[in-house]
Amino acid sequence: MKTRTLKKLKPIRIIGTIALASAIVLAGVLGFNIYKDTEAFDADKLLSSGASVMYDSNGEVMYTYGSDENGTRENITYDDLPQVLVDAVIAAEDSRFFEHNGFDLPRIAKAAISNLATGGRQGGSTITQQLIKKTYFPNAEKTYTRKLSEVFLAIQADKQLSKEEILTLYLNKIYFGRSTRSIGIAAACKYYFNKDVSELTLPEAALLAGSLNSPYNYDPYYCLDKATNRRNTILNLMVVHGYITQEECDQAKQVKIENTLCTSSSTSNNSTLAAYVDLVTEEVKERTGLDPKEVQMNIYTYCDKDTQELATAIANGDKYDYSDEDMRMGGAIQSSQDGRIVAIIGGRNYSYGLLNFATAKQQPGSSVKPFLDYGLAFENLDWCTGQTIVDEPYSKGNFKPKNWDRKFHGTVSVTSALENSWNIPAIKTYEEVTKKIGKSGVVSAMESLGIDMSKQKDPANLSYAIGGWTTGISPLEMASTYATISYNGLYTESHTINYIEIVQTGRVYNVDEDIQDEAKQSDYSKASAFMVREVMLDYTKNGSGNYAYLSGIDNVGAKTGTSNWASSKGNGMGGKSRDLWMTAYTPDYVCSVWMGFDKTGIDKGKTTSRYKAYPGKVVQMLLKHLQKNDSNKIYPEQPSTVIKDGNEYYKKGTSHSHHASETTEEATEEQTTENTDDTTSQDTGNQGTTDQGNTDQSSQNQGTSDQGNSEQGTTDQGTTNQGTTNQGTTNQGNTDQGTGSQGNQDSSTTPDTSQNTNQ
């Protein structure tokens, strides 16, 4: 029996041995091929290069990355490092640093076992490997091939350089916080403590060493509690490895980090430009795959420094007192004809690395009506500007929208409907559009204007017609859209960069040249875009409502928008005002401004009802400032495919018989009892705003003077009530400011199911 069993097992063992040998051979071949393809090691490459420099539209230096006034990054030597810092970094990042050969197999194995057990993502890279990655693979994806190349280069580095040299190179290159002013140990010491490296104390050294694991999350200026806990963890590790005593550890923990931080940065970089700088940085990474904080480059932008500084001063309340410290503002100003962004508003007291409200998506309200509803109708239904629509009671299942004035106005033209921002005509129009082109047609049209529709739940839902989007639109997207419409539908991608020079290689990225070459007609023909543009130009001229703030600005068209919370919103917020917009264009510039409250303000029960005129005033200030610049730009001429008949426009070859029969009689019926639950009682400045009712009242506003914090005679400028939205936290001071990435504010909103049904 035993012999028979052994005989049966023998073939299995043979097969197993062969398989193992084959795997070893295969791994060897694979490893050799990766080794052969790995870039040759060059110790000089590990040296920290000079800092990247950013230039404004006049070619003047506006920002340098983590550098001094001369645009050079200060590099320290090993002798400059206090022993307490060396000990803290070794304890935090690589306890066997002075023992291994650049690659620590036990460390890798320990990390792998931990990740399998906990499902975590613990790293096993040595300091040498981290230095190699920063130098050779700064933006590469985490793959086994890249990791193996990293190991090969780390082993070579360890052979050619001393441990002291490797540690010094690492500390000169690494990030110590969110800001670009914290790159390298010398800059980090200035950024946090305004002192030289040699002057670091034990708790300060532990703080810096702790930040290396996650510079973004452990920057004490934004995440004080996390930074404190991480520092204390490093102090404990220093005890474990015998670098300090328990008594020294306990004493260091008693030091409050906030008492050691300097109150202001000692660098020369101008924080008034921070929002624009952050936007440029993200664009550089997207277009080149390189990080200007890691690779030395010269970046030439279209930043109008004076305008950017004015925009920042407005956002901070220095040039315009919008009173409530919890109110946030985002905005974008770009050229109308070539997509060049000249300035942005990132938020109140914006500092480097914070959540940028210029790219954060917000609910658009009535701002979408010109291009989403009527523009698509001009394009796909061959409507003229005088096309008539019956404004009457309307419902689709649970979706029972209302007009801002709780009245119906009988037969109205597209021009009147848009001028008064009545909801029912807009919804009816959108319904006809979606029947014709479907969801895919809407998505295509919006994307052709520069609006990202990838996260929209159902663009064919009728609530979209009045701004009820599952995710919103950012000020940058809104500016791009209106620029395209004002320029007869020619889309030019919005951008901040003229060109980029990579210092090390000499490569030049001609960003603007490429973008201008790729400009193309959107899904809106010249005729359709022209008709939208002219309608908005006409009703802006009357100077009523919040459009009165644009008086004195030449050839300006504009649209306002507001949104309300859904009736189901808790915390007493149901039906209350939420988002405020003004977007205006001239032949030269487009300016889009959003204002509202983030989570901090919302949790306090704050609404925007008192501030409806604010976005218009901000746009006015910015456009009047820009109007001082002489310009010979004019709007594109009327296309030959458009015919004017009286005050109305229509496309050549289409029927336009409806426009002559418009009636203006008003139906005064209000919603009946079945809509009572959806009606919100408001003051006389916002009469009868409802959960799905936009109240953009351009011509009904009686008076526009701003008296303190109370707007006299202003009305809700196109409201759409939305579902629950988490706007992210952007508290100023020593608190976490949100993600700091572009557009990571969670503005996703599911349309109120009591008001909307999928159509």
Report on this model:
By secondary structure, this protein is α+β, with helices and mostly antiparallel strands. Among the domains are: 75-260, Biosynthetic peptidoglycan transglycosylase-like (Penicillin binding protein transpeptidase fold, Orthogonal Bundle), CATH 1.10.3810; 311-367 and 413-637 and 682-711, DD-peptidase/beta-lactamase superfamily (Beta-lactamase, 3-Layer(aba) Sandwich), CATH 3.40.710.10. It contains 21 helices and 18 strands. A 5-stranded mixed sheet has the order 2-1-3-9-10. A hairpin with a 5-residue loop joins strand 4 and strand 5 (341-345). The longest helix is centred in the N-terminal third of the chain and has 36 residues, at 2-37. It is elongated and about 90 Å long. The protein starts with a helix and ends in a 48-residue tail after the last strand. Mean pLDDT is 79; it is low at 1-6 and 660-759.
